[in-house]
Amino acid sequence: MTCSTERVGRQSAADRTARIRTLNDQLRQTGAGGRMVMTAGVAALPAQEIGAILLAIANFDAFDQNNDPWGQHDCALLHVGDRQLFFKIDYYDRALVNLSPDASDPAVTIRVMTVMLPEEY
């Protein structure tokens, strides 16, 4: 049995992945559906550069098998000007204490996107 035909509850694994990808894209592109945080290294940059970084992350669409093997659009390394950056989306329960029991279900998940310099990972 392949992952695309596995069933998780009533939803196939492929459907769950598509839902996670959609929710991740929503957070990354609009800031809706979760929280966006940045590390101290990014926060120390000039405001104009931070704005350019967030815009670049929102517009990022170069996901492929190398940087997105699970098809969830949950992390990537990118360049903004001469600076290399990394973003990562993690899935927590509503109390932000444990991992989410189901990243495809926004009723039980809070997404947290962290923007960081690669050396801060």
Q: Largest sheet, order of strands side by side?
A: 3-6-5-4
* Count of DSSP-assigned helices: 3
Q: Level of helix content?
A: 25-40%
The overall pLDDT average reads 91
SSE order: EEHEHHEEE
Strand content bin: 25-35%
Total beta strands: 6
Class based on secondary structure composition and strand pairing: alpha+beta
Alpha carbon gyration radius: 15 Å
Summarize the main sheet: 4 strands, mixed
Low-confidence stretches: 1-8
**Tertiary shape:** globular
Distance between the terminal alpha carbons, to the nearest Å? 35 Å
Describe this structure in words.
With 121 residues, the protein is of the alpha+beta class. It is built from three helices and six strands. It has helices at residues 13-30, 40-43, 47-59, and strands at 7-8, 11-12, 34-38, 75-80, 83-92, 110-116. The chain has a four-stranded mixed sheet. A two-stranded antiparallel ribbon has the order 1-2. Helix 1 (13-30) runs antiparallel to helix 3. The protein is globular.
